[in-house]
Specification:
Layout: H1 2-6, E1 15-23, E2 26-35, E3 47-53, H2 59-72, E4 87-93, H3 104-126, E5 134-142, H4 145-157, H5 159-166, H6 172-180, E6 192-195, E7 198-202, E8 205-206, H7 211-218, E9 222-228, E10 234-241, H8 245-253
Parallel strand pairs: 3-4, 5-9
Antiparallel strand pairs: 1-2, 2-3, 5-10, 6-7, 6-9, 7-8
Length: about 260
C-alpha cells in the first residue's frame, strides 16, 4: 500500500490488486500496482504499472506475456486522448516460489497477468480526472482483431461519444460514426449497436427503443456499449470515460 500511494500524482486513491494462481506445478502469486488519472491514452501515456510474481519463468516468455497483457489492458484505455513522455509497465518474476511455468501453466499464467492488468487499467479509468462515468466498448464480429481494436479505441476516444455519455444521451449515430472513421472495415447494413442489452441500431437503420429507459442506463457509473460489425471473428474491448466540465476545470486551472 505504501508503494502504491507513493507513486500517485493526481490520483485520488491507490491502485493495487493481487491474484493467487494454482498451477499444475504449484501455486504462484501475482501482485500489481499502478498510477494514472490524466493524460491517459493508448500507448499508455502518463501511467506507471508494476506487476510482480514469484513464478519461475524464462525472460522470453515473460516478455511475451507482458506485451500481450499491455495490449489488452493499458493500451486499450483512454481518459482524455492525450499522452506524455512518462509511461512504464514492468512485469517482474523472481522465481522465489520454485514453480516453473511452461506449457499449459504458461497459458494460465498469461491469462492471470492479463486479468490483473485489466483490473489495474479499470482502476485508472475509474479514477480519471473529472470522471463521472466509465464505459466499456466491446466490438465483435470484426474482420480482424486489429479492426476490432481500432473501432473500440476510436469510439472510446471520440469527444462526441464522451460528451453523449456525460449527458446520458443514447446517441447511436456518434458511436456508429466513430466506428466508421476508425479505419476498420464497416458495413452499416451489417452493424448492430447495443447500449447495455438494448439494441439501438441494426441492419442499416435505427431501432425503436425506450429513450427514457436507456437514459437511465447511461446515468449509471458503469456503462457497456456493444458493436457487432457482422463481418468476421475479430473482437476487442476498450474502456473510456465521459468528458465533464470538471475535467475542463482541473486542466484549465493547472499551471506548470
Amino acid at each position: 500500500m505504501d508503494v502504491a500511494t507513493a507513486i500517485m500524482t493526481t490520483d485520488t486513491k491507490p491502485k493495487l490488486t493481487g491474484i493467487e494462481l494454482p498451477l499444475g506445478a504449484g501455486t504462484v502469486h501475482l501482485r500489481g500496482i499502478a498510477k494514472g488519472a490524466g493524460m491517459i491514452h493508448p500507448n499508455m501515456a502518463t501511467l506507471l504499472a508494476f506487476v510482480m510474481s514469484d513464478a519461475d519463468i524464462g525472460a522470453p516468455d515473460l516478455r511475451s506475456v507482458a506485451r500481450d497483457a499491455a495490449n489488452a489492458s493499458f493500451n486499450q484505455i483512454s481518459i482524455d486522448g492525450d499522452t506524455s513522455t512518462n509511461d512504464t509497465f514492468l512485469l517482474l518474476a523472481n522465481g522465489a516460489s520454485g514453480v516453473k511455468v511452461h506449457g499449459d501453466d504458461l497459458t494460465l499464467f498469461a491469462g492471470a497477468v492479463r486479468t490483473l492488468c485489466e483490473m489495474l487499467a479499470m482502476g485508472i479509468v475509474a479514477d480519471g480526472e473529472g470522471v463521472t462515468r466509465v464505459f466499456e466498448v466491446m466490438v465483435t464480429s470484426a474482420a480482424s482483431d486489429a479492426d476490432a481494436r481500432a473501432a473500440a479505441r476510436t469510439i472510446t476516444t471520440s469527444n462526441l461519444v464522451k460528451t453523449a455519455i456525460h449527458g446520458a444521451d443514447p446517441n447511436w449515430g456518434r458511436i456508429l460514426a466513430a466506428a466508421g472513421r476508425s479505419g476498420a472495415t464497416v458495413d452499416q447494413n451489417r452493424v448492430t449497436v447495443r447500449i447495455a442489452d438494448v439494441v439501438v441500431f441494426e441492419g442499416g437503420a435505427p431501432r425503436a427503443f425506450d429513450h427514457d429507459a436507456v437514459r437511465l442506463i447511461l446515468s449509471q457509473k458503469d456503462i457497456t456499449i456493444g458493436v457487432d460489425l457482422g463481418l468476421g471473428a475479430g473482437k476487442a474491448r476498450a474502456w473510456g470515460t465521459d468528458l465533464s466540465a470538471e475535467y475542463v476545470r482541473i486542466n484549465a486551472e493547472y499551471t506548470t
